[in-house]
Amino acid sequence: MRRTLAAPGLAAVLGMALLLTACGKTNAHNNTAGETVSTALFDFSITDVSLVESYPGIDIPDGECLVRMRLNIKNTSSQTYTMFLQDFQIQWGEGDSDYGTCLNAVDDTMMPYAYELTPGQERSDWLMAEIPEGSTSCTIAYQEYKTDGSKGDAYFVEAAL
């Protein structure tokens, strides 16, 4: 799997530029689905990853399949943060365009576009993404950003399909 992240959109940059002040070398953290990942501001895990044939309200384009996964997230900091769906990227291959973001929510069981996380708050929602048919694994990626705009640590969670 590729180990880089595409430049995030403005909303994701604002959502991730969360008072990180550490300086120095950035690190890549590699995990597998089911493991808890600890970032500077929150813990998260990706669980229950599977391919699904259909989902109400989502039309799957020809040549694509739908991967469903549960994002479990807990604010471990002492501040409230606004998180965005695009904070987490999905990757499925080695190519420069083998990545995307999860689909916008079509019901209240899916992760909303934006949400607040208060100190100690936990939430667990479904993420859905379209990936090419025949994909046998995917990686969910999160990139930290420091207050100066430079990249912090990167987190990769691999999941078999």
Could you explain the architecture of this structure?
By secondary structure, the chain is mostly beta strands. The chain is 4% helix and 47% strand. The chain has 1 helix and 11 strands; from the N terminus they run H-E-E-E-E-E-E-E-E-E-E-E. The chain has one helix at 10-16, and strands at 28-32, 37-38, 42-52, 64-75, 81-84, 88-91, 99-101, 114-117, 122-132, 137-145, 151-160. The protein has a 5-stranded mixed sheet with strand order 1-11-10-6-7, with no helix packed on it. Strands 2-3-4-9 form a 4-stranded antiparallel sheet, with no helix packed on it. Strand 2 and strand 3 (42-52) form a beta hairpin. The longest helix is centred in the N-terminal third of the chain and has 7 residues, at 10-16. The model is unreliable at 7-24 (pLDDT under 50).
Supply Rg: 15 Å
Instruction: Report the major sheet.
Output: 5 strands, mixed
Give the number of helices.
Answer: 1
Order of helices and strands: HEEEEEEEEEEE
How much beta, percentage-wise?
Answer: over 45%
Work out the number of β strands. 11
Average predicted local confidence, pLDDT: 86
Q: Report how far apart the termini are.
A: 14 Å
Oligomeric state: single chain
Structural class: mainly beta
Helix content: under 10%
As residue ranges, the low-confidence spans are: 7-24
